[in-house]
Structures are given as C-alpha cells and as structure tokens.
Design a protein that fits this description.
The chain is mainly α and 204 residues long. 74% of the residues lie in helices and 0% in strands. The longest helix has 27 residues.
Amino acid sequence: MAAGEVPVRAARKNAPPREDVLVAAMATIAERGLEGLTMAGLGRQVGMSSGHLLYYFGSKDELLLQTLEWSEAALGVERRALLSRRGPARERLQAYVDLYVPEAARDPHWTLWLEVWNRSQNAGPHERERQEAIEGAWHRDLVALLAEGISRGEFRPVDPDRFGARLRALLDGFSIQVAVGLPGIGRGDILDHVSEFLDEALVS
C-alpha cells in the first residue's frame, strides 16, 4: 500500500451517511447554484476527499442524479399527502400545480432537474430509466387525480392519461421560464394561466 493511501474498508467506515452528502449537495445548489457545486468543495463539507466521493458515486452525473432522486422522494411524500386530502378534486389539482411550479428563479430543485435533463443526452439506459421513474411518479399521481375528478362528475370526461401528459408539458414549459429567470413572467403569472386553463378545459 502506498504511503498515505486510505484502505477501502477504512474509507467505508469513515464515510458520512449517503443522505448527508445529498443534503449537502442540495444545500450548496440552493446557496451557490450548480456552479458552486464541486466534488472538492462538497467533500470538504462532509469530511471526505473528492476521490472518496467519486469512489462512492462514480461521477458527478451520478451524484446529481442521486441528489435529484432523494429530493424527489421527499416531494413525492408531500405530493401524496396533498392529493390524499379530503375535498374537491379541483382544489387538490391546484395543490399539485402549486407543488410542481418552481418558487422563483434558480429554484434549487428545478435547477437540478434542468442540469440532469441536460446531462441525460449522454446518459445510459439505466440512468434514463431512473429519470423516467421520477417523471412517471408525477404522471401516475396526476392521472389518478384526474380520473377521480371525472368519476365524481367534477371534471369533464377527458382521457386522464392524455390530458395529464398535456398538462405536464404545459407546466414544464412555464416552469422552465420561471426557473431560468426570464423577465416578464413569474410564479403568480403561471399559476393564473394554468388555473384559467384548467377551469376552461375541465370545469366550465
């Protein structure tokens, strides 16, 4: 063993919990943006070398994807709690939209999503399947809510799957504009647009 080399077993023993690394990565994105997230800087925050981080995650792409999966898991819990509440389906659909749309420019979750999407051009099949799993969870919850509203007579009898796909495409397009900070449109504007669209397409 070369001088100063850390044995693999010791590296595993001394490594912080995986979630601590993901929390630190998300906090860095929130505070300094993606440009502030480096393997060396993240390693200093959690007491690991950049080499050890690469050992555990393999690449920065994998670190970003795992951070997104962790963040999405938390959002999934919140989303399911919102959608399982009692009350009109239209109110719960609005809660879904509120959760989907970024809070403001440089929203950390959306910043991370956009970066993972950008890097997915060179991703392998396994990574693409994991991204699809995230998208699929949002879609399934939306389709179930739409189907409930239709069955209760609150919504027009649209195809829930097709309408859900179109609605999420609309939300993605609007949300990207907010996330990147395009002037002239904010979160409130988007929520008004989407609310008007939903009332016209599903209720009135």
